[in-house]
Task: structure prediction
Amino acid sequence: MTRQAYKTISVLPMAGRERLIGRELSIEKAIRALWDALNGWRIETERVRAPDALNRILAQDVVAPADFPPFDRAAMDGYAVKAEDTFGASPTNPALLKVVGESRIGQWPGFEVHRGEAAYVDTGAPIPKGADAVVMVEYANRVSEEFVEVLSPVAVGENVSKRGEDVKAGSIALKRGAVVGPAELGLIHQLGLEEVEVFAKPKVAVFSVGDELVELFPDAPPGKIVDSNTPMISSVLRRWGADPVASEPVPDDVDAVKEALRRSLESCDAAVVCGGTSVGEKDVVPEAVDSLGPPGVVVRGLAIRPGRPTGLAVVVGKPVFLVPGFPAAAYLVTEFVVIRFLWMAMGHRDGPPRRTALARLSRKVPSHPGVTHFVRVSLRREGDELYADPITASGAGVLSSITRADGVVVVPPELEGYEAGERVWVYLM
Result:
C-alpha cells in the first residue's frame, strides 16, 4: 500500500534547521526531528550499588573483570576421570578405577587424578587437576571405599563446565542500554561488581492546561472537570523508570502556561504538557512554548490516531511534549511517543521491551494509509486460540476504552487495517 501524501509543510527559521508545522509526521520522523533539534541533550548517568540497579538501564557496557566460572567445574554429581580410561566401559565390562579423593563445592582439591584413577565430585565443584570428564553418578558403581566401577564411557569435556564458559575475562557481559532484570542483576553480582553505571531517572514535569480543570473532585464546582490526566501520565512515566514531578492545572492563559513551563524546566529534564495543543481559540500552549525562545515547537501534528494534535518542542534546550487533553489519547501518546523518546535517549531505538501476545482478530479493523492507529482490544480464549476483540467505544476521550482493554494493536502506516481472522501482535497493557 502507498502512504497517503503528507500535508503541505511550512518551514520556519529554527537556528539553522527546519521546524515541521502543519505536517503530520510518523512517530519515527517526529522523534528524530526532536532529537536533532535538541542538539546534544542527554540524560545524565550515575553509579549505583549493584543491589540498587534492578530495573535500571545500563549507561555503560559491563565488562567481565575475570572468567566465570573461574575454574573448570563439574556439571553433574559423579566421578572426575580421564576420559580415555572409560572407553569401552559397559555394565557387562565396567572400567575399574581407584578413588583417590573427592572434590566438594566451595573447596579446592589438593590432589591430581592420574591414569586409572577417579575422584568423587559434587555439581559445581572444581575438577581436580588431571581429570578431563565427569562420569554421572548414575553410571558409576562404588564397589568399595577404594574403587568405583564405570558403567558407561564419557568423552573429553563431558559433564564439565569449562572455565570462562559463561563469561570470558574482558568480554562484554551486558551491553549499554540493557535493562537490569533479576538475571542481569545476578550476573552483575556473579562478576563481583559492587557498582554499575546507569542512566539517572529522568525528572519529567507534568501538568495539564484548561480553565475547566481542578485537582480534586470535592473541590469541583458545576462545570468543572477533575484533572485525571496528570496522575495518569505521571504513573505511566513512573512505571517506565522516569521520575515525574506533577503540578496543579494551569488555566488557558499564555502567560500562565509560560510561567508554569519555565518554572518546571528549572529543575526537570523534560516536560509533558497535557491539553491546549490543537488549533482552537483556547489552545494556547504552542504560543506559550514559542514565546520562551527558539526553537520552540519543532513538530506539530503526528500521523497517529488517536493523538493527532501531539506536538514536540524544545524549550531552554530540553524536550517538551505537547500531549492532547483527551484522556485515551494522552495515555497512548505518553506510552508510545514520550516513553519511546526517553528510552531512545537511554540506548533503546524502539523504546522499552513490551510484553506481547499473538491473537486472532474477531472482526475487521479499518485504518487510513499513512497513519499509525492504536486499536484498543480485549482478549479472550476459545480452546487453544486467543482472540482480540476491538473495543467499540474507542474515541480519544473515552478513558474506559483503556481500562477495559487488555492491550493495543498497532496498525502500521503502510497498511489499510487488518481483516477479521488475521493474527496480530497485541502489546499487553
